[in-house]
Write a structure and sequence with these properties.
The protein has 4 helices and 10 strands. By secondary structure, it is α/β, with parallel strands linked by helices. A 5-stranded mixed sheet has the order 3-2-1-9-10, with helices on one face. The protein is globular and about 40 Å long.
Amino acid sequence: MAVVGVISDAHGLLREEALEELRGSERIIHAGDVGDPSILEKLATIAPVTAVRGNIDKGELGRKLPKSEWVEIEGVSIYVLHIREELDVSPKAAGIGVVIYGHSHKPEQQMKDGVLYFNPGSAGPRRFKLPVTVGRLAVEGGTVRGEIMELSVE
């Protein structure tokens, strides 16, 4: 089984609580709005990082990060982008098992046509009354199980 840590919308803030939840991951996926390149460096001390550009990722960071990324883990194809509405492929037709996205700051996961759509929510500054969260995927035998963890922060 592979454990994949999923984080999004850090907006320049990487909380210790988020790092604790991501420890033990074999890979970390950041679904955009990183805000500060040092966040990716810190995440890389835990596991290899795949990250995409969010709408606030400008300048050098924005130029370095791709708009979308494909990752294959344990035979499961994962497509990563920041804004779900900008998805430009048919996940089912392309054989994608998971679509990871962020942007809304709202954690959610749903199965649709055999594809898991997974938003870990926002790990950065609290927005509105939404929880501060990160996610985890357990990938085993071609199947994926998602979990959202709420961080205990003020």
